[in-house]
Design goal:
Elements (H helix, E strand, L loop, with lengths): L18 E10 L6 H12 L9 H26 L1 E2 L4 E2 H16 L6 E9 L4 H10 L2 E8 L6 H16 L6 E4 L7 H15 L8 E7 L3 H5 L4 H16 L6 E6 L12 H7 L7 E5 L8 H17 L4 E5 L6 H14 L5
Parallel strand pairs: 1-4, 1-5, 5-6, 7-8, 7-9, 9-10
Antiparallel strand pairs: 2-3
Helix pairs in contact: 1-2, 6-8, 6-11, 9-10
This protein binds the ligand C=CC1=C(C)c2cc3[nH]c(cc4nc(cc5[nH]c(cc1n2)c(C)c5CCC(=O)O)C(CCC(=O)O)=C4C)c(C)c3C=C and fe (ii) ion (2 copies).
One fe (ii) ion binds next to loops.
């Protein structure tokens, strides 16, 4: 409920309150595939201390001297291959917007709840959308980093950014952050349904299902990041839900960046050796990604498939992420309604 401005004493600043905001936040994405858009995006992303933990004194000369000169062109070409040409944006932004819109429809029975969406890097920024929620009278905000498996490089940096915004506010909204939901039954069932759905369209049967998660450096894992265990738990629960044996489902880690050792087994290396093991029909999915994006469409559906076929594979299918499917929104709605308890 908002105080009607006409009832306020003369000279009293306008006050709005009484609503609850739900802010969905994904990683982010460049505004375009050109050099400068890519460079701006990568500079913001790769100067985040939660993403690259090396000392700034060591990392910045490499970032500004080498990475930001070469990588924008290379990665821009990869983005071009998976760009949503209809809306002139990446699919990550298309799906995140659609998730926000569909979530708002699902929560229509809660008239005091306002749903919005934003990105950790690039636009729309977390600060911009938190400002917009406040302006609409949200004095409580549920912040939902869209990562089923908590990691410092993803969930924590979204939370950091929201708290950084709060540091500058005179009237801070109360903030709740959504915890890891890697073992939520709604999430596991939705993943299993997506596997069954894709496999039902095939004329062949996979010998192996690979669950490929984004990796993190080994050093982050050794420093206590729980991400590794959360990925393994998701994969185990999915295997049990599907009724597969341990041989029928394998977990791998993708998207290595830089010279460090990352979590293993690596997805690309695994794809090279499967056929030699006698595994020639493979399905692969990315349970850690709420939306399809560069890392799933280009690196897995594209590159990983090519590696597999080049090394003797015969059949390959990529199972899409949950995206804005009915099941995908069911998962997000289940988590949001649970975390809103006591506020609505
Ligand atoms: C050290 C670098 C990186 C860490 C650690 C990292 C962790 C991490 N990332 C995701 C999800 C996504 N990453 C995406 C792209 C991407 N990731 C890195 C680096 C690290 N990620 C880079 C440099 C990039 C940009 C592309 C590139 O230059 O290779 C994306 C896709 C964004 C898109 O617009 O499509 C996602 C999503 C997770 C879940 C994670 C750790 C758990
Ligand atoms: Fe990443
Ligand atoms: Fe673990």
């Amino acid at each position: 409920m908002n105080i009607v401005p006409s009832k306020l004493p003369t000279g009293h600043p306008k006050v709005t309150f009484g609503k609850v905001g739900v802010l969905l936040v994904n990683l982010g994405t460049p505004d375009g595939t050109d050099y400068w858009s890519m460079r701006r995006y990568l500079a913001e992303f790769l100067s985040d201390k939660r993403v690259i933990e090396w000392s700034r004194l060591f990392w910045y000369p490499i970032l500004y001297g080498i990475v930001l000169n070469k990588r924008p062109q290379k990665v821009g070409k990869a983005y071009e291959e998976i760009w949503n040409k209809d809306l002139d944006e990446s699919y990550l932004r298309t799906y995140t917007r659609s998730q926000g819109e569909k979530m708002a429809e699902r929560l229509a029975d809660l008239p005091n709840v306002v749903v919005d969406w934003g990105m950790r890097y690039g636009k729309p920024s977390i600060a911009e959308r938190m400002d917009a929620l406040k302006a609409q009278g949200c004095d409580r905000i549920l912040l939902f980093p869209l990562y089923p498996q908590y990691a410092a490089a993803t969930t924590a940096t979204v939370n950091d950014k929201a708290f950084e915004y709060l540091m500058k506010q005179r009237w801070q909204p109360a903030l709740r952050t959504v915890p890891t939901y890697h073992d939520d039954p709604a999430y596991i069932v939705a993943l299993a349904n997506s596997v069954r759905q894709t496999l039902s369209t095939l004329e062949w049967e996979p010998q192996l299902l690979i669950t490929s998660f984004h990796g993190i450096p080994q050093s982050y894992f050794k420093a206590g990041d729980p991400y590794h265990c959360f990925c393994y738990k998701t994969a185990r629960l999915l295997r049990e839900e599907l009724g597969y044996t341990e041989k029928q489902l394998r977990l791998t880690f993708q998207s290595r960046f830089g010279p460090e050792e990352w979590l293993q087994p690596y997805t690309d290396k695994t794809m090279e050796t499967l056929a030699a093991e006698g595994i020639k029909r493979v399905a692969i999915m990315n349970p850690g990604f709420v939306s399809d994006c560069l890392e799933t469409l280009e690196e897995i559906a594209g590159e990983a498939g090519e590696i597999f076929m080049h090394h003797g594979g015969e059949n390959f299918v990529h199972i899409p992420c949950l995206n804005d499917s009915v099941d995908g929104i069911n998962v997000l709605e289940t988590v949001v309604r649970r975390e809103l308890q006591g506020w609505v």
